[in-house]
Amino acid sequence: MGFFKAFIRVVKSLAVIEDKYGWTNPFDSVTIIREPLIEAKDKNEVKEILLSKYPQFFPKDKVYQRETKDEAQFFYVVIFPLYEYEKILIEEGEWKCSQCGQVHENKYVSKPRIDERLLGSDVMFCSSDDDVCYENFKKEKWNNVEFPDDEYYITKESPIYIYKCTEKATDKCYVGKTRNAPFFRWWNHLTKSYSPFGLYLRETKLSDWTFEVLEELPSNIEDSQVNKVESEYMLKFNSIKNGFNSVISNKEVLNNNINQIDIFVLIENR
């Protein structure tokens, strides 16, 4: 036995397909039925299965695999054996949605929604037009924190930017770091963030804010040093006690400046 996929299509002479400019392509066809997985010994058995399942498409009990001169023919079938990688997806068996818990038969019949860049290849979701499971997972995972950088725009030579977003009316600010061009990161805050800062930013006007780069760091700098510089700016601008940052990224800086934090607290309590 083997695995096949089949497509029932309208004969090309009957399929009038116009593109956006109004041109028709006589070599195009229209697929009306897609059978992604049929288990059969050969293509002839596949045709028998299709005939029994969709007799309305095949007058005279004849299943054509190409267009003919038969005036009674309106449809034909294209049959392919599965590729090896498709067979592997079947053999891997069931997979489970990381959000709703639904168990799917296999990755070939039910292709999972995967964001390998952001979440890795082992985190999978039910596929849908509006990505319900994927979007809900992101909202829960990054609740009160920022999304990581969008790596599509990052190279090994990309510098690291320490930036500040400041609300003009209150002088409260958010300090962050990014390997992206800073305006990409600011757009990320505005469109994708589920943190308190991102949610607040979307409720205001962009004209209420100033966006600036505080410092540009070399691409080969250690992450610990980046966090140290970022944390120093958080303390300098008091962006945790009187701003939009939730946590400090370098505890050593916090410990070294504990007196400064205490002073902030005393001032607030007066």
List the helices and strands and how they pair.
Blueprint: E1 2-10, E2 30-40, H1 43-53, E3 75-81, H2 84-91, E4 95-96, E5 103-104, E6 113-114, H3 116-119, E7 124-125, H4 132-141, E8 160-167, E9 173-178, H5 182-191, H6 196-202, E10 209-217, H7 223-236, H8 251-256, H9 258-269
Antiparallel strand pairs: 1-2, 1-3, 4-5, 6-7, 8-9, 8-10
InterPro entries: GIY-YIG_endonuc_sf (IPR035901)
Protein name: GIY-YIG domain-containing protein
Poorly predicted sequence stretches spanning 5 or more consecutive residues = 261-270
Gross CATH architecture of the largest domain: 3-Layer(aba) Sandwich
What coarse outline follows from CA principal-axis ratios? elongated
CATH class of the largest domain: Alpha Beta
Number of strands: 10
Query: What is the CATH topology descriptor of the largest domain?
Result: GIY-YIG endonuclease
CATH superfamily of the largest domain: GIY-YIG endonuclease
Number of H/I helices = 9
Mean pLDDT comes to 85
Radius of gyration: 29 Å
The main sheet orders its strands as: 2-1-3
Helix/strand class:
alpha+beta
Main sheet, how many strands, which sense, barrel? 3 strands, antiparallel
Number of domains: 3
Q: How far from one another are the termini?
A: 81 Å
Order of helices and strands: EEHEHEEEHEHEEHHEHHH
**What is the subunit arrangement here?**
single chain
Strand % is 15-25%
Tell me roughly what share of residues is in helical segments.
Answer: 25-40%
